[in-house]
Amino acid sequence: MASDLQNGQLTTMGLLRPKTNIDRRSCKRVVPMKVICLGLCRTGTSSLRAALFELGLNDVYHMFSVTTENPLDAELWKEAYDAKYKGIGKPYGKEEFDALLGHCMATTDFPGISFAPELLAAYPDAKVILTVRDNGDVWYDSVFNTIWTVSNFLRAPPKTLTQRLVQAILPKPHFNVFEHTPLGNFPVEGRQWYDDWNEDIRTRAKGREFLEFNVKQGWGPLCEFLGVEQPKAKFPRVNDSASFKETHNNDLLRVGAKVVAALSVLGLAVWLAKK
Predict the structure, then answer these.
(1) Model-level pTM greater than 0.85?
(2) Taken in order 262, 266, 272, 275, is the CA torsion positive or negative?
(3) CATH number assigned to the domain comprising residue 142
(4) Do residues 89 and 95 lie in contact, with contact meaning Cβ atoms separated by under 8 Å?
C-alpha cells in the first residue's frame, strides 16, 4: 500500500482487498477493534480507510468490504438491519459484531455507521473518528452528484426495455443500506441529514477519545490522535467525485455490453420466430 501512496493518489480499485467468500457467522474476534469511524458517506471514508491501512490497522471495514470484497457478509448485515429496523430476529450486539467484524481493527462508512450506538456500546475502548466536509453544502453537492444520482436511477421504475435490462443485470446487494435514511428524499432532507447526523455522533462520543477530522487536514491530526508516526507518503486521496463517476461509468459500460448482447439475442429470437 505504501508504494501506491507516494503521490497521494490511489484508485478505488487499488484500495480493494482480494475478493473472498467467507461465511463469518461462526467467526470470532482475532484483533482488537481500535477505531470506529462514524462519518457519513462522501466525507472521505475511502481515503480514511486507505490512511488507516497505511498506519498499520488491518483490516478496515467499509462498504467495499461487503459489496466487492466478501459479498457473503450481506446476509449478516441484512439480519442486523432487519432486527434493528423491522424487529425481525435477534438484535446485533458484541457477539454478532465480533463474528462479522472480528478480523477488523477499524470500521468506516456504511453499513457500519447504521449501527453507531451498537458499535460504541460493543467496543467502549475504541477511539472514535467523525469525518466531515468543509460544510454541509459541499457534502450535499457531492452526494447529489454521485450516490443519489446512481441510487435514483436504480430505484426508478424502468420506462424502457433497455432500462429494464440494465437494472436486471446490475448486481444488487441483499439489503439496502439507505432504506432507513433520508436518501430517498435527498433533495429535500439531505442537507439537514448531514447536520443532524454529525451532532448526534458528537453527542454519543462525549467522554470518549474523539477526533472530528477533515481528510484535507492530512496526516497530522490523525497520527497525533492515534499516537503513531506520520508516514512519508502523502495522505491518500481515494474515491473523490471524479473517481466515483469514472468507476460507475466503467460499470455501466460493462453492463451496456451485456445489454447490447441481450438485445442482439432477443432480436435474433424475434427474427427466427418470424421465419
Answers:
(1) no
(2) negative
(3) 3.40.50.300
(4) no
At residue 130, the pLDDT reads: 99
Please report, for residues 162, 164, 205, 234, 266, the alpha-carbon distance to residue 270 in angstroms, rounded to integers and kept in the order given: 16, 18, 62, 57, 6
Look-up: residue for cell 466478501?
A: 70
Cell 502523502 found at: 234
Q: Return the C-alpha cell found at 238.
A: 481515494
Predicted confidence (pLDDT) per residue in 61-77, tens digit: 999 999 889 999 999 99
For residues 239 and 91, give the distance between their C-alpha atoms in angstroms, rounded to a whole number. 32
pLDDT value at position 214? Answer: 98
Own/partner long-range contacts of 153-160 (Cβ < 8 Å, ≥24 apart): 155/184
Residue 162's pLDDT band (cuts 50, 70, 90): low
Helix (H) or strand (E) holding 264: helix 241-274
Least confident of 66-80, 88-102, 126-140, 234-248: 234-248
101 inside domain: yes
Antiparallel, parallel or unpaired: β 127-131 and 210-213: parallel
**Total residue length of the chain:** 275
Query: Which of the 8 DSSP states describes residue 9?
Result: B
Q: For residue 190, tell me if it sits in a domain.
A: yes
Picking from 47, 46, 84, the residue whose alpha carbon sits closest to that of residue 177 is 84
Q: What is the grid cell recorded at 61?
A: 471495514
> All 3 cell numbers of residue 146?
454521485
Tally of domains within the chain: 1
Predicted confidence band at 223 (pLDDT cuts at 50, 70, 90)? very high
Taking the CB of residue 275, how many other CB atoms lie within 10 A of it?
4
Range of the domain at 81: 2-163+173-238
The residue that leads in pLDDT, 17 or 39, is: 39
